[in-house]
Amino acid sequence: MEKIDIHTHILPRDLPKLKERFGYGGFIQLDHHKNCCARMLRDDGKFFREIESNCWDAEVRLSECQSDGVTLQVLSTVPVMFSYWAKAADALYLSQFLNDHIADIVQRHPTRFLGLATLPMQDPKLAVKELERCMKVLKLSGIQIGTHINEWNLNDEAVLEVFRACEELGASVFVHPWDMMGESTMNKYWLPWLVGMPAESSRAICSMIFGGVFEKFPKLRVAFAHGGGSFAGTLGRIQHGFETRPDLCAIDNSVSPLNSIGKFFVDSLVHDEKTLKFLIQTFGIHRIAMGSDYPFPLGEKKPGSMIENLVDLSANDRQKLLSQNALEWLGKKEISK
């Protein structure tokens, strides 16, 4: 069966020295301290993450895709690179650098990779301009954005300006957690990644539901990382809150959260077979697309293996999860040959 991985991350091998260029810090640098390995460091030297060559080398990725049976990867940057905190013009410069890199890989391997752009979302006008370049000139497939944009949730009018352009241009939207809520108060045990990330995804979904985003842009194709985070597990509470306190929850949109199910996609990255079955029951077999978080430790070691091993799935439903739903989210009928 064909396998399309909608959730993979990539970086250029070398990043520009942005602190020297812009005169202030906070940006990520790569320290290639040994063969096939690099440290992601903030430009004050603070360690962020260790990565291997499969995070920047397309040939290594292709080899690993071949081993794992992955037909096509959708490439997006590592979320720490969003840099929504930076000056907008500087974030645009970095976005263009990252987008050009992804576009180059897609152009060299068009049957194996598709690409998602990153945008300077802190300035919607600049973001839309870069979106247009990425869709019309670079021929990317959409965008990856964070679960919030600094103080804006994804129902904010500033963000809607970008969603409007995405709908008009046919750009797919992948929403990934970043800048996790409560991070400064739970720095032990990797809790920002284990607790904050799932909460961030639910924050984004609820903001879009209660903000009426899916009603405003019915043709917008949105997918959320990590199975939608904690949203599915708390949907009963969310629905109950909507019903019992409409004065708080239904002030911008009268559509029930349950009625929003089916209007967006989630990826399959939940690490647990029972949870994946629960996602299928909650969102429907047609709204879950394979995603692995390649090449990171919290990802699925062999992309798609949980779907492949899930019992009581018809071949048709298995193919939906492995590739067909991804194609629908991407707005494509088939993988280009």
Q: If you compute it from the alpha carbons, what radius of gyration comes out, rounded to the nearest whole angstrom?
A: 19 Å
Percent range for helical residues? 40-55%
Broad CATH class = Alpha Beta
Order of helices and strands: EHEEEHEHEHEHEHHEHHHEHEHH
Question: And the CATH topology?
Answer: TIM Barrel
Extract low-pLDDT stretches: none
Strand order of the largest sheet: 1-5-6-7-8-9-10-11
- Helices, by number, come to 13
Largest sheet geometry: 8 strands, parallel
Q: What's the number of domains?
A: 1
Q: Find the CATH superfamily.
A: Metal-dependent hydrolases
In the CATH hierarchy, what is the architecture at level 2?
Alpha-Beta Barrel
- Mean pLDDT across the residues is 96
Q: Kindly estimate the percentage of residues that lie in beta strands according to DSSP.
A: 15-25%
- The total of beta strands comes to 11
Q: N-to-C terminal Cα separation, in Å?
A: 15 Å
What does this structure look like?
- This protein has 337 residues and is an alpha/beta fold.
- It has a single domain, classed as Alpha-Beta Barrel (TIM Barrel), CATH 3.20.20.140.
- The chain contains 13 helices and eleven strands.
- The chain has helices at 18-22, 58-68, 88-108, 124-136, 157-169, 191-210, 213-216, 235-244, 246-249, 257-260, 273-283, 305-309, 315-330, and strands spanning 4-9, 28-34, 37-42, 47-52, 72-76, 113-117, 142-146, 172-176, 222-224, 265-267, 288-289.
- A hairpin with a 2-residue loop joins strand 2 and strand 3 (37-42).
- Helix 3 (88-108) runs parallel beside helix 4 (124-136) and helix 4 (124-136) runs parallel beside helix 5.
- The longest helix is centred in the first third of the chain and has 21 residues, at 88-108.
- The protein is globular.
